[in-house]
Amino acid sequence: MKTRLLVIGFGMAAQRFLEELLPLKGEAFDVTVCGAEAEPAYDRVRLSSALALGSELGALQLKPQPWYEEHEVRQVLGDSVARLDLGAKQAHTASGQVLGFDHVVLATGSQPLLPPLPGLQLPGVQVFRRLADVQALRQAARPGVRAVVVGGGLLGLEAAYGLSLLGASVTVLHLAERLMERQLDAQAAAYLQRDLEAKGIHFELGAETVALEGGERLNAVKLKDGRVLAADLAVLAIGIRPETALAREAGLQVKRGIVVDDELATSHAGAWALGECAEHRGVCYGLVAPLYEQAATLAKRLAGMERAPYAGSSVYAKLKVAGLEVFSAGDFMGGPQSRQLVVEDGTRGLYKKAVFEGPRLVGAVLVGDASASTRLLAAMKKEDGQQEAREALGLGGTAATSPLQGLSEHELLCQCNQVTLGAVKQAVRSQGLRSVTAVRACTTASSSCGSCTSLVEAVLRQENSAPSPVLPVPAAPVAGIQAGGLAMAGAKS
Fold first, then answer.
1. N or C, which end of the chain is more exposed by having fewer CB within 10 Å?
2. Strands (E), 49-162
């Protein structure tokens, strides 16, 4: 008899878990996946490009419908689990369905963080988290619409850029004194702000929103300093919080997220959790790469395979904000004993910083050109990363002529999907691949957040005698952003 496996939540983490588990031991499981949204799993990282470009669901879906049919995955869509009875091993949905299980995996993700503001329920007030939000914003945004985005993190900036492309007049309100303060230092944030202002977006920093005002619908946003900004549309994008209500009511241990151990096991036998809703060693990840690492660990655990326990993930941000490449990792601010190496070219909008504690590279920031990010991440793992960091930034007399210079073939080219440089090179050679699209289909590299696309292009240039035609990857957040979204490999804030 097959083991009944119920997956609650149908986002990117749940989908990757199924992709990891089913090839290993799919025949042993009777799989049901239950999602609150009406659509099967889609690429949430690319919602920002969907807003700007109008991408339909088909372009965002992670797997076509025949894939689920082939693997005999039962889908329960648009019907959230309202009650989880771990003792009886049953999940009760909002529509009244009862789903039995032997193992249950909670991948409930996160919800937008909403400030306690008067006027939240006014028509014209919107969040930016799901495909339905994108569709609502596209209907609301048009030339002449006055849009206010509350939140200057990744999600807020992506929403602002998308609305601007749709013709809206956009103002971003941010409580902090610089944009993306969790991922960028002051100088890097200044470069980002300058780039976005050139695209027509206005910013009010150090601005605290205290009320959303209007009669039948929103017409203004009020600030703490007394100013009132006229607004036809307000988008709240100040962060996310793990969705834990179902787990808490079921009696599972919950702190900020659903507490899991190195096996991704919760406090109840047979119940597991992964993704944005899970808290591992005190950390909740709002990132693509850690979610995928968790999915691989849990899949091997349930398949009964030998595996390494999940020990946590490195936190870094590599993304494109409105087309501008941005990267940060580690302690990029530095402490009193740190030393900084800064390369800056204001005429080209380039800013690069490496932070050292003794000989160790402990943090880095890149704006305008993130091609050195892979080498910097590798240098951060070394006892002495000084020379490699200098070379990655184009110093030391050995400036890199390719973003691949200095990378060994066993190092990861695609962090999200754990694809090595050697694997991509081998695929290009053996399959005669000549485009990024072909590499994605063959290896999955660059198929999630798209941040490694420039590296895939470099492999194609290196392995083929002529430049290869590639399809552009829409601007999207990337793996490595701490909860606060979509990179959401990506977070969003």
1. N
2. 73-77, 81-85, 90-93, 98-100, 103-106, 110-112, 125-127, 146-150
Name the least confident of 43-52, 141-150, 366-375, 475-484: 475-484
The strands making up 324-330's β-sheet, listed across from edge to edge, are: 316-321, 324-330, 360-367, 350-357, 339-345
Query: Sign (positive/negative) of CA torsion 21, 25, 27, 28?
Result: negative
Residue 326 near residue 183, CB atoms below 8 Å: yes
CA distances from 301 to 105, 266, 295, 298, 392 (A): 12, 13, 10, 5, 38
Contacts by residues 113-119 (CB-CB < 8 Å, ≥ 24 positions apart): 113/238, 113/239, 113/240, 113/241, 114/236, 114/238, 115/150, 115/209, 115/236, 115/238, 117/209, 117/210, 117/211, 117/212, 118/211, 118/212, 118/213, 119/211, 119/212, 119/213, 119/214, 119/218
Half-sphere exposure at residue 368, Cβ-oriented, CA atoms within 13 angstroms: 20
186 phi and psi angles, rounded to 5 deg: -65, -40
Q: Which helix (H) or strand (E) holds 461?
A: helix 453-463
Q: How many residues does the chain have?
A: 493
Cβ atoms of 1 and 43 within 8 Å: the answer is no
Which residues touch 387 (CB under 8 Å, ≥6 apart)?
396
Q: Of residues 406 and 283, which shows the higher confidence score?
A: 283
Name the percent of the chain lying above pLDDT 70. 91
Nearest to 417 by CA among 467, 466, 452, 455: 452
How far is it, in rounded angstroms, from Cα 379 to Cα 355? 12
pLDDT in tens, 132-174: 999 999 999 999 999 999 999 988 999 999 999 999 999 999 9
pTM (2 d.p.): 0.85
- Domains of the chain listed by start with CATH number: 3-111+242-302 (3.50.50.60), 125-238 (3.50.50.60), 324-392 (3.30.390), 412-463 (1.10.10.1100)
Q: Is 118 exposed, middle or buried (0-12, 13-18, 19+ CB in 10 A)?
A: exposed
For residues 23 and 7, what is the distance between their CA atoms, to the nearest angstrom? 17
CA distances from 122 to 14, 115, 125, 282, 352 (A): 33, 14, 6, 36, 43
If you compute the radius of gyration of the chain from its CA atoms, what whole number of angstroms results?
Answer: 23
Token pair, residue 438, equals 């072909």
Helices and strands counted in the chain (H then E):
14, 27
Phi, psi of 332 (to 5 degrees): -75, -10
